[in-house]
């Protein structure tokens, strides 16, 4: 192309793409002011651009912060609803399948404005477990010692870790993070482990450490960020597969 060889072309190449966008934004503000003669339309245009840029650059984090006053009320209520719902089921019992529920780190912003899980997700998991006709139990307030007992109990065949984490660790509570590499020992072997939380594209997961290779494709493990909608879709897919 001839453009990059010209002085103008080289100047264009040096420009950061955000700069012309910024001047376009300023031009729209000036136009809004000239056109209306009022500050309110200018403010609306400014807020619109801030919203768009925030979503583009910060995505989910920006939306989470934008709606945080609402979430600050809704998520504690969700926690109350989940606690009430869990009373219908066995808790802290070494059944065939157990569900370890995590908790947020209350020293982080995410802990206050991002839910650890929703009631509908727990209900979706219950429907799956009932479809599989498994005896199951929830561990809503477990610590690392409890998890060690769960993992070493050979009568427990299947374990779900439900909450916040990545491929390598799981947030049990504000003060306790469970590191999956600590279970790299045959005595912790399980038929299935399901990491129902976000994942990372690299490194070993708990599934890699404790589940036989032939069973790993059937485990809930995704090496990417996931959200409530994704979890619900996957739980329903698994339920349909069980029911045929």
Provide a descriptive summary of the structure in words.
- This protein is α/β, with parallel strands linked by helices and 244 residues long.
- The protein folds into two domains: 3-66; 69-243, Rossmann fold.
- The chain is 50% helix and 10% strand.
- It is built from nine helices and six strands; from the N terminus they run H-H-H-H-E-H-H-E-H-E-E-E-E-H-H.
- The protein has helices at 7-14, 18-36, 39-66, 68-86, 109-113, 119-131, 144-152, 206-210, 228-243, and strands at 97-101, 136-139, 158-162, 169-171, 177-179, 192-196.
- A four-stranded parallel beta sheet has the order 2-1-3-6. Strands 4-5 form a two-stranded antiparallel ribbon.
- The chain is elongated and about 75 Å long.
- The N and C termini lie far apart (59 Å).
- The model has no long low-confidence stretch (mean pLDDT 89).
Keywords:
single chain; 244 residues; alpha/beta; Rossmann fold; 4-stranded parallel β-sheet; 9 helices; 6 strands; elongated
| CA(first)-CA(last) distance | 59 Å
Q: Return the CATH topology of the largest domain.
A: Rossmann fold
- Which CATH C-level class of the largest domain is it? Alpha Beta
Second-tier CATH architecture of the largest domain: 3-Layer(aba) Sandwich
**C-alpha Rg, in Å?**
24 Å
Strand order of the largest sheet: 2-1-3-6
Number of domains: 2
Spans where pLDDT lies below 50 across 5 or more residues? none
Assess the beta-strand content as a share of residues. 5-15%
Shape: elongated
> How much helicity do the residues have?
40-55%
Q: Assign the structural class, choosing from mainly alpha, mainly beta, alpha/beta, alpha+beta, or little secondary structure.
A: alpha/beta
Count all strands and give the number. 6
